[in-house]
Amino acid sequence: MVFGNLNLPALDITRAITVGLVLGAFILFAIVGNILVILSVACNRHLRIPTNYFIVNLAIADLLLSFTVLPFSATLDILGYWAFGRIFCDIWAAVDVLCCTASILSLCAISIDRYIGVRYSLQYPTLVTRRKAILALLSVWVLSMIISIGPLLGWKEPAPKDDKVCCITEEPFYALFSSLGSFYIPLIVILVMYCRVYIVAKRTTKNLEAGVMKEMSDSKELTLRIHYKNIHEDTLNSTKSKSHNPRNSIAFKLFKFSREKKAAKTLGIVVGMFILCWLPFFIALPLGSMFSVLKPPETLFKVIFWLGYFNSCLNPIIYPCSSKEFKRAFIRILKCQCHQRKRLGWWTYNYRTWNRGSFEHSRKDSLEDGGSFLSGSQRTLSSATHVWQLFSSFPIMCES
């Protein structure tokens, strides 16, 4: 697709100012929003978990796009021609592909991470370590560079003679290769992972509901036995010890699982918006490259092109709307309060000295953030009283 005109058009000042203000505001919002996402994780220790590393990587890709690609794309649309020379046109197009590919590969990594989080919620900290997350992020950028570097090495159509015309590479085989590598193959992985997340989450929710009801029934039975029978003290202590083991508690599993589902919901929204924004472009590009009769009009293609770019400013809106932790972090940063909340490890459990006020605050935040995206999952416990009874039997980990 060719951007620019061989015959330079007369500049419409009114149109140029209007388009410039709209695109300028859009670019500024994308830059500020993605910087907020990065600072939220950097300034809040409890947000520094592997899942959020992938979110930061996505924000870095969008921020790089907003800084290095969008201003020149906006200038091209305002002026109606390319004003930066042939060499920079090639670099601009390559960086564009690099950033967009890094974004969708980051989403691909996020979908795999969420599947592991939901499928193996208790084992997740040992399966997805900081080192493994960093290696995955490096792989994302290496693959993105491999896909984007082709045109710089000559895999493209002959360049137009006029340097004021800048073309997106329409070489059919490269257009097909980049579309498959940058969008369609990762999209298949993402959809498969989220289908599996849905299936596993639905099955696990059902099992946890059954486990919670059984644990409540066993607790009532134990109370009756203690009241009406003289049970040996050692046996009673052993039973209590087992019931207070946080790792064996159904409530602990429910707590961890609900948080993983909430993260999956938020990132599922991110993936959905990415697909809506970029799918039209990745349909139009390969079809237009291989079949000239299917090329969309230039104005329509520009709309499709900027619809993909629009995705870069959506994610910073999704996070605070879906995650209370990110919302609080955004507010603190906007108030110039870079808050380093201490991430606590396991608290030593002592039933007699347990601070219920602190626990209630942590539990309230967790339950607020732990809402489900599956039908019926909010009915896991029948009442707030049951939630308190179950959750008060084990220590909690303060993490996002």
Automatic annotation (TrEMBL):
Which residue spans traverse the membrane? 20-42, 54-79, 91-112, 133-153, 173-199, 263-283, 303-322
The G-protein coupled receptors family 1 profile domain covers which part of the protein? Answer: 33-319
What topology does it adopt in the membrane? Multi-pass membrane protein
A single Gene Ontology molecular function, please?
alpha1-adrenergic receptor activity
UniProt keyword annotations, A-Z: Cell membrane, Cytoplasm, Disulfide bond, G-protein coupled receptor, Glycoprotein, Lipoprotein, Membrane, Nucleus, Palmitate, Phosphoprotein, Receptor, Transducer, Transmembrane, Transmembrane helix
Check the record and name the InterPro entries matching this protein.
ADR_fam, ADRA1B_rcpt, GPCR_Rhodpsn, GPCR_Rhodpsn_7TM
Which Gene Ontology cellular component annotation is one that this UniProt entry carries?
Answer: cytoplasm
What superkingdom does the record give? Eukaryota
Pfam families to which the protein is assigned, alphabetical: 7tm_1 (PF00001)
Among the GO biological process terms of this entry, one is: regulation of vasoconstriction
Subcellular localization: Cell membrane; Cytoplasm; Membrane, Caveola; Nucleus membrane
Oligomer status and interactors: Homo- and heterooligomer. Heterooligomerizes with ADRA1B homooligomers in cardiac myocytes. Interacts with CAVIN4.
The record's similarity note reads: Belongs to the G-protein coupled receptor 1 family.
Q: What does this protein do?
A: This alpha-adrenergic receptor mediates its action by association with G proteins that activate a phosphatidylinositol-calcium second messenger system. Its effect is mediated by G(q) and G(11) proteins. Nuclear ADRA1A-ADRA1B heterooligomers regulate phenylephrine (PE)-stimulated ERK signaling in cardiac myocytes.
What is this protein's name? Alpha-1B adrenergic receptor
Species annotation: Crocodylus porosus
